[in-house]
Amino acid sequence: MTTPQHSAVQQPPGAVANGTPAIRFAGVLKTYQSHGEAVPAVKRMDLAIAQGEFFSLLGPSGCGKTTTMRMIAGFEEPTAGQVYLDGKDVTGVAPNKRDINMVFQSYALFPHLNTFQNVAFGLERKKVAKDEIKRRVAEILEIVSLTGMEKRAPREMSGGQQQRVALARALVNRPRALLLDEPLGALDLKLRQQMQVELKRIQREVGITFVYVTHDQGEALTMSDRIAVMNAGVIEQLGTPRQIYERPASRFVAGFIGTSNIVEGHVERAENGLALLSYTTQDRVVVPCGSACRPGDKIEVSVRPEKIDMHRGVPPVAATGGSVLSGVVNEVVYHGTSTNYTVATAAGADFTVFDQNASNAEDLADRGDRVFLTWAPQHSYMIGV
Amino acid sequence: MNRVKRQLAPYFLVLPGGLWLLLFFAIPMIAMLSLSLQQGDVVYGYRFTFHWQNYTDAIDGYHTQLIRSLIYAAVGTILLIALAFPVAYWIAFYGGRRKPTYLFLLLLPFFVSFVLRTISWRQILTDEGPVLHPLKQLGLVPDSYHLLGTPEAVIGGLVYNFLPFMVLPIYVALERIDPRVVEAARDLYANPALAFRKVILPLALPGVFAGVLMSFVPMASDYVNSEVLGSSSTTMIGQVIQSKYLVTSDYPTAAALSFILMAVLLIGIFAYARALGTEDVMKVAAR
Fold first, then answer.
1. The organism sits in which domain of life (chain B) (predicted)?
2. Which B residues 195-224 touch A at CB under 8 Å?
3. Domain B56-286 has CATH 1.10.3720.10
4. Of A158, A335, B88, B216, which is most buried with the most CB atoms under 10 A?
């Protein structure tokens, strides 16, 4: 189990140390006209992405993450506010004049050009000398393991290979920042996981700022230095993967990142920085709240499924200091590495519990069994605090 | 039994089309070929005599009209590309949800018979028509100036009549271009003009190629536009063939001219296809 992080905002490696942010948004607003009405896609966003950072914009479709990225690239202009690259105001500057490259969703390779010509496209536009182009294309194809594929047309290559051509085509220009728009979405699971590791390695090797747009929380958590979780045009939370997973700032983030059990209740007592919510004589939730809550307050408490212990019969004595909820098992789903239980609790909410299939093959409980769920106070938190 | 059936199925499927081709293409072609080598006259009938002289006579007599037809078709094709590309481009990239409407509007005039439409162009272009009359009244063009009967009128008629045959294939090619590919070019430091030249144009060329095939061939053998909008100095080869068949009943010369026209067009098209019809052309264009 992980220890709780009570420290304030953690900075990613090199986040502030390097001075000017690679990308900065100042009060950026973007609205679209739809049936004569202005529909906001991005609402008053302030954002600073550090040099060399692997930064993810994570959110469901329609949350404004792609619009945000397209404003960095210059394909969309903000309705209000400024975009800065390396401290320079680039608002209104055409995409071809921004020192930024993009890896498009479904790659957008030039179908009439082979691998070499695709990768060389940007350098040719920049009027780089012919042998310099040859050298740099060869070098980048080596990095993405595509040496020998120079003459292949895009349609003669697999999805994974096309993906790497797209990456090489952008990286070969040594941009100030690389934007990636759901670049792994079209690949199958195995290849996707491989490419995640690969992308991270390439980013370390070239040291370029990566801005990664995805709706896949797993992808964002494994690769990013920092993540901005977006919803309805607003950044709901910005932080390291650990901060976002362990301490979601809103109910939306808690629900969107991984699985969360959320239980509501009124504070009965608040002492020693802990709040007590009780439902019956034996069902109670204990949650750290600092000085943020008073008796009578209505609060939401979140706890991750893997932090919960499940017992049949009577809860063990050791758990008496923490939360205890009784309930009935509704569903048992075997997942190989773990078994997932759905429990209807006395607090009213259905809880999900993950149990690692560590040693014995025996399931903890069957459908219809009465069980007790227990967890330590530090494994739960109040949402929005 | 089943296996035999399965193996025969493709042949059964091709049977109707094959019969059609045999009846309405192969047999008439052979009949025409035989006709082009016959000798005689309408009154006493024609006899097959391997009279190859029909061909040399036809070339001697009508090479002017043949070459004129090819020139008109070539000029018409170039004008068509210049006219059709912007239209197709606009519909494909700026048509939005109304694309089908614009395509329909483009095709709308073609629900009227093309002979009728060409005849109405005659009304428009005549000296007393709505174009020349006011211009002459204002003294902007001399009284001796005519539009009808000129090569310009004939080529104009051809271009007008074959516009959709150029717009549609180019539109289809442009429509298939992923807008993100164009954005990728812009992202890779190409300004809008370069993105057009390096990406959109090469990807649209197969459409232009198809459009040229679909318009050049029928324009070269067209006989209506010159008949209605032209004069004796604009006579095209299609008119000659038509009048040989239907007016003077000189079937062998008409058949020989048809074969000559077909041969010229086929050779031209094969040369054109070899030079421009493959993917190489896109690669060349992208340089």
1. Bacteria
2. 198-199, 202-203
3. yes
4. B88
